Amino acid sequence: MVANGNSGISSMLIATDGSVYADVATECSAWLASRLGAQITALYVIDALDARRLAGHFIKHIAEVLESFPSEGIVETVRDYYRRQGEEALTRAAGICERHGVECETKLQSGNVVKAIADESTKADILVIGERGEDEEFETGFIGSVSEKLVRKINRLVLLTGLEVREFRRALLAYDGSEGAREAMKMFAPLATRLGLEVDAVQMVEEGEPTTALREVISYFKEYPVHLSTHYLVGDSHSLIIDHAKESRCDLMVMGAYDNSMADSLALGTTTDYLIRNSPVPVLVHH
Predict the structure, then answer these.
(1) Which of 33-47, 75-89, 132-146 has the lowest mean pLDDT?
(2) Which of 40-54, 116-130, 248-262, 263-277 has the largest mean confidence?
(3) Architecture of the CATH domain 170-286
């Protein structure tokens, strides 16, 4: 295979809830789309099915709701409030994209948030979402957040962003020789080429364990005009990968998704879970 500069990403879906996390995700998406020539769809979903989350959010903003709509019935007041919140969030997302010279279509839907985003993601090459959102204090913990559910549910690239995002210049590729990691590498090589990224491939190994997996990475990247470095991290704690990302000043982390069939039922413990929760930089997850 010879690199041709085709990133494979021409359409992007941003899931926004109007939070600071969502705005940062939108900034990141717009920057990326401007470099890839991709189009963006921004989606806001009013969660009509999750009573606990909706009630918590309503209580948090009740003064604003009642002040804004003092004369209407409570049901219509709540409905209008969330519709307006969605419209404002989408207008803000479209403005961010416009600043970056990127075309943005906006969609406002009502229903189950995870299902609606998952369904819409089938029309895009990548989903971009903040790792937390407006209602993070109402999440149940463990594997309960919207972002983590989506990483498990959809069969698409997912880019999760936190509050700190820089222009991507150096990416850490977490590699373990598994099929998932191999497919992530194949996906990422042309994208790294298109963006002109340096790539730092790392594998975690225990003391005395053979260090061979990164040879595959070296061999594969020979076909791509990318500056590649490799590091074996000796130890059994996934925190080694996080520490290395910080020390090497990476701007992006790339990995394959869950490496076992039990992943959907596990609350904690997989490499993917740990890195998503603790990465200091955006995480690109390949299914």
Answers:
(1) 132-146
(2) 116-130
(3) 3-Layer(aba) Sandwich (3.40)
Question: Residue for token digits 């061979």?
Answer: 212
Model confidence pLDDT, tens digit, residues 66-120: 555 554 566 667 778 888 999 999 999 999 999 999 999 999 999 889 999 999 9
Residue intervals in the chain for CATH 3.40.50.12370: 11-161
> What would the DSSP string read from start to end of 170-221?
EEEEE--SSHHHHHHHHHHHHHHHHHT-EEEEEEEE-TT----HHHHHHHHH
